[in-house]
Amino acid sequence: MSRIEVLKTYKIYIGGEFPRTESGRYYTPLDSKGKALANICLSSRKDVRNAVVAARKAFGPWSERSAFNRGQILYRIAEILEGRQAQFVDELMRQGSSKGAATNEVNLSIDRIVYYAGWCDKYNQVVSSVNPVSSSHFNFSSLEPMGVVGVVAEQSTSLIGLVSLILPAICGGNSTVVLASEKLPLCAVTFSEVVHSSDVPAGVINILTGYPEEMAVTLASHMDVNALITSNLETKLSNKLSLLSVDNLKRKFDYEVNWVEKDKQALHYISDLQEIKTTWHPIENVGGASSSY
Amino acid sequence: MITFQLINMKKELNDNWDYSSSLEAINHIQLKKKYNLFIDGKWIAPSKNTYFKTINPANEETLAEIASASKEDVDLAVKAARKAYTNVWSKMPASERAKYIYRIARLMQERAREFAVIESLESGKTIRESRDVDIPLACNHFFYYAGWADKLDYAFPNRKIESLGVAGQIIPWNFPLLMAAWKIAPALAAGNTVVLKPAETTSLTALKLAEIIEESGLPPGVVNIVTGFGETGAAIVNHPDINKIAFTGSTAVGKIIQKALVGTSKKVTLELGGKSANIIFEDAPIDQAVEGIVNGIFFNQGHVCCAGSRLYVQEGIAEKIIKKLKQRMESLYVGDPLDKNTDIGAINSKEQLQTIEKYLKIGLDEGAEMYQPKCTIPKKGFYCAPTLFLNVAQSSIIAQEEIFGPVLTIQTFRTVDEVVQKANNSPFGLAAGVWTDKGSRIFNLTSKLRAGVIWANCYNKFDPTSPFGGYKESGFGREGGLHGLSAYLKLS
Predict the structure, then answer these.
(1) CA angle A85, A91, A95 (to 5 degrees)
(2) SS3 breakdown of chain A: % helix, strand, coil, rounded to 5?
(3) Complex ipTM value
(4) Which chain A residues contact residue B159 at CB under 8 A?
(5) B338-371 confidence digits (pLDDT tens)
(6) pTM of the predicted structure, to 2 decimals
(7) Which fold has domain A26-282?
(8) B277-456 CATH fold
(9) In this predicted model, what pLDDT tens digit does every residue of B301-323 receive, in sequence order?
(10) How far is B148 from chain A (nearest CA, A)?
């Protein structure tokens, strides 16, 4: 008798835990053959708000980690994902990808994580400046993470679009609340399991499944979310989110990018989610001593 | 006891020995009775032939009549800017663009004193400030950005760099010429053309700048100045052929603009309001800190978006700081902006004075304790005595909302964590001040305070090379420095 496979219950990921949605609701996305993929959590507004609270709590400690340490943790995500590559390929194929495309997407995702892991302790050096002001002050500008970043993942991919938006955000010390692709949610949930076993502190990445429109509206109007990034979103919804974002002047970016292209990774995806802080301090200027003797 | 006697003596001296006035000469300035719009290198009468009066807030006398630009006039300006962009400015070698901007800087320097006087006459700011801060900084801003024009590749390595096209720029009345410089200089250096609207109470120095631009030989249409009220600004924001909106002003208007731009491809930067914390630790250099508090809140009558309007003093030193601050305030001279003795000039407009007075009443109603020094205030014109509020709660309206006047709230704190929480507990995040002798504490605070500019052991310092701009509801984008260029470029 053949062995009975143990099926996975797909959950959401909030504050380092795997609850089902508080609403008890579910939806059933279909695979390319019209067969049910799984009973996926149909997360509610309350789940979004809980995730924002978790992300806010995680933001301070995460942004205060050393850049080198963040780099190691991001690299660890790549390591764990590499080890579970087959599972992601399998899920992508269940969601309609060919084997070649699935393998390519997973490999590219792993490489992209390594790419951003390397940026953690470098971007600030590249973008910061010491400013030669005319008065007797030492003045420098450097980057600081914006805070809690809402991420509406690309709808047409399951893994690479998700990774391409989350990684630059957390690389720069932000925490995230991520809304997975509605129709292709499997990899997002499994990615949260990878994140969970990669030393990423609880709350830095929170991943919810459900209807993006319903959840994104809550995210865009939430007064404790500092930035909102979306990708290849339909114009009507994108504009609606932009309008809601104005209430607390969320920084909003909508990337129209084909993430499966190899070079769609860059410094500016990190720096878009950074504030520039300028610090002034007087320089003592007494006596006649100069450095020229 | 000795201090007490000294204060009494000083008071007597002050009572009996007033300053002799030291008025700046105004006979050398050139002002027309009536100003038209500067469009396509020409001075054009407004299409609806409407003008409004601009007054001197120090004595309410009319200075000139200013054209009010209609939607049609704005359209004309945008068309001129587009034509200049397409035919001339975007085709010109960057090094030549730079030379025009340098020329503007030099011409401004040559006429700096005239500009300072006109700025003080119309805005109410003291001549010492316009002469020593506003005008030199405005000139330097042009000089600084001129040099960037042919070096943009070094600013953004690995990016494809393009200018945006026509920039629509709307500026406030608190630093009229300086804000015009902050907007126009980087826009031109990056290769864009400009339609700029000054605030209705302070159009003159922008119009004088237009004269300089004309004199510099800058190709017609590269810079257009349209004067008017909110409707003129709205016409700029909503014009379909503008590629970039840059706005400095209130958070409320900034949000209206941002909403109006949803669904368009216009790039936007917003420099908005603030309620910045100025934090004094027990080990701070006391006298310098007191000067810093005064400079932080009373500079430019408190009409400063980054004004240090929330003072946090560590408990052990609070009594001493408040006492010294009150003493210092006794010697502040409120009066004619053109008098070189004056520390606090005129409030920019009657409306703004009413707003400030509304907040003074709110503060009293909330139960805060108000303190104003004994100072004589001119009978004519709009003036407000420097004001402190003690016994203020974190939740008080006067500690939460931007007043934009010479009004300071004072609260105390015990620990670093407490003051970080209090300082960050605001929807704004423009600036903050920290006063302490301890270096490690400065770096702790400068990284924990959620604000775009941190002044450590100083306050209200500005420089063309130094990026300025806020976190949270204080807006987005930076002005000044290398980082200020990106607001006027398409980077891909």
Answers:
(1) 140
(2) 45, 20, 40
(3) 0.93
(4) 268
(5) 999 999 999 999 999 999 999 999 999 999 999 9
(6) 0.94
(7) Aldehyde Dehydrogenase; Chain A, domain 1 (3.40.605)
(8) Aldehyde Dehydrogenase; Chain A, domain 2 (3.40.309)
(9) 999 999 999 999 999 999 999 99
(10) 14
